[in-house]
Amino acid sequence: MKYLDEFRDPIVAKKILKEIHAVTTQPWVIMEICGGQTHSIIRNGIDQVLPKEIELVHGPGCPVCVTPLEIIDRAIEIAGRPDVIFTSFGDMLRVPGSHKDLFMVRSEGGDVRTVFSPLESLKIARENPDKEVVFFAVGFETTAPGNAMAVAQAAKEGLTNFSELVSHVLVPPAMEALLSSPANRVQGYLAAGHVCTVMGWDEYDPIAKKYEVPIVITGFEPMDVLDGILHTVKQLEAGTHKVENRYTRIVEQGGNQPAQALIKDVFEIANRKWRGIGEIPVSGFKIREKYAAFDAELKFSVADIHTEEPEACISGVILQGLKKPHDCPAFGKECTPQNPLGATMVSSEGACAAYYKYQRILSD
Amino acid sequence: MDFPEALSCPVPILSHDTVQLAHGAGGKLSNEMIDKIFLPRFMNSTLEKMEDQAVLENPGGRIAFSTDTFVVDPIFFPGGDIGDLAINGTVNDIAMSGAMPKYLSVGFILEEGLPFETLHRIVLSMEKAAKLAGVQIVTGDTKVVNRGSCDKLFINTSGFGFVPDGVNISASNLEVGDKILLSGTLADHGMAVMTTREGLSFQSTVESDTAGLNHLVQDMLGVSTNIHALRDPTRGGLATTLNEFASSSVVGIQLYGDTIPVKENVRGACEILGIDPLYVANEGKLVAIVPPDVADAMLEVMHDNEHGKSATIIGEVTDRHPGIVAMQTGLGANRIVDMPVGEQLPRIC
Amino acid sequence: MCLAIPGKLLEVFDENGLKMGNIDFAGSVSKACLEYVPEIEIGQYTIVHAGFALSVLNEEEAKNSFDAWDDLIDRANAEGIEMEKLERPD
Fold it and tell me: What ipTM did this prediction achieve?
């Protein structure tokens, strides 16, 4: 496939890898924010072939992992109502709530449907005027343009039976929260290429300056990831801390302006709770007052939800990069992808699931 | 082979356009449906007798017996339908023992209101698949259920064939050093079905690979009867089959990584939906574990069969990491190829 | 977090007042909303996430990345670093 295969060429990837070995002189801790990059790193075994000095820690950039338990429980409650068609990206269906997941809601008779685009959810709303259609609008900045468009379009069409249960989070506040933590070990960041596609990189300059960390905007194919690591290491070795764009075929400094405009129209910045991490100020979106009719949280009054997080799960510290999945006593024992205790074991991007899937006890 | 006369066959004239509950009640309407829809397409000397059972000759030796039930949604998909899938599925399950499938039974569960035109189309494709595989449908059953009690129609097929002497194929027979042969491209069927489903906004060119593989297996046995293991990687895909092999035989499986064939358009669909072809169902592919000394000759005869044209050696059996399937990555690292958890879903992250 | 892959724009059409397009991913064609890439022309590549085109791929920049990596290769060669081909483990 054009513009995909070229960036997976193992021969070129090996050359970049050699260059990384050549420039590395001392230990460095680098965090890739984005779960898509975690997936690529583990799937291609990039962490196995890097110089021993370089430690990659896996960041919180996985909406499935950081969507708080209260919202999952709320989704489950709404999805179980007889007048509701609940629509979601496939990713969220297996995420465990306090007592069940959306798959179980479906088996109990709930109408839960997988969609690939929020616009498909709108189509379902048009075709089922006697039902309430709710879309589970999760994601980072990359997914926000689509989720915003669905709301704006529903308003334009006067679709009163459509609403979104929003759990939108933002990358830069999470980066700052991690960097300002006394336990922080991260010295350089691979920034998430597709988030920057939408938002550009102006937000990252103050972070790089304040915390003196290099931030390299990185793509997702093996060569992109290696190239991002190479340029982060180069900056670390040189003692610089600039924002550098290495995903130039996709990302522009100002990001996608029309997308930002519509996001701003539909959403406003709000405090958000991150599963495993806790509340981070101004770290997410909520639907603006003028679109309140499309906010599922307001439309469906959900009784007080009492959440229960399994005690054994350490996904919070894993999401902060303080521990690795195999440091968890439950990893691979009580907690497996078949029976996940925490969200990081559910998503294919979750660090625990990625470790379980690709790296467990492989001795050679 | 082609059956233009069958494909152009008009829907027989019946007293109703759609299946009624009475068509399952055993009276006149039942007989009309059997006489007009099923018998003309499935006819053979055993079925013709219209007994409650088929009485068949037993040539002696071992019998391979299998059953499978088909509930695929949608019932028509690019490259096939629930009918040829139901024949090929059981044919293949029998063939993976090394047996030549011989006789099948067919059980239909029909939803009240199913158009006879739809049923007829499916029966025609079953006829075609059975002829290609060289199997006879010797007994059958039909039930009609209330609307909503099943989705259009479900089909069960069971069948058996005779295992040649000297053939001993089993998931627990893998030996260190064996080569792993894959008969062709991965993920065609699963992606054909997935991209047809409502809600995915796809205009897919992906076609199912549904096919009977019994002739291919016979060709392979012609090279050597010493095939250690054989399976068609259906639900759960190649990853599941190989994990089952590794765990049954308590050996490791090492895949070469970049050698696994996937058609470009199938890969395109997998990429956009975030799905790994290793975990997607196939309905016309087999994976064979053979000793290294027969691997190349086996591959050659596979290439001569239309269902093995792009067959390739994808890996080998190793004494390292017993019970685990590993794949070499382009960077020279080694990663685990685990069993999938649940169905494959399109994802955005 | 955000699965998005490049595909080629085949055609543009209107659906419920939105600018939409059919995008070719190596033979599998998927519908995407083009409202956020108003400048896109047929034949161009775009990155699609969850049914939305988010950026027109800059082909020149893609080439620049390759040229830079090619330089790495030349340098490695000049330094006599052996660039072995991948081999099957035996």
Answer: 0.91
